[in-house]
Design a protein that fits this description.
This protein is mostly helical. Helices cover about 70% and strands about 0% of the residues.
């Protein structure tokens, strides 16, 4: 499965940060409200953290993403 083989390992290689915590919690199935509560952050900050984390993960997984999906 792609999550197990690529995404989870990529998350684990991210530096310890709120970005990593956001994508880790999201990958566990938590909702935005639950993630914001766990991290003690606002929905706006959560949105920003997730966007930056996704950019970072895309960079880490660039070799595995088809050109049309980048």
């Amino acid at each position: 499965m792609v999550l197990d083989e690529l995404v989870f390992p990529a998350i684990e290689t991210m530096p310890e940060s709120l970005r990593r915590q956001v994508v880790d919690l999201q990958s566990q199935g938590l909702s935005d409200r639950q993630i914001a509560d766990v991290l003690g952050t606002s929905a706006h900050q959560l949105h920003n953290l997730r966007n930056k984390a996704i950019v970072e993960l895309r960079h880490r997984l660039a070799g595995h993403i088809r050109d049309g999906n980048q």
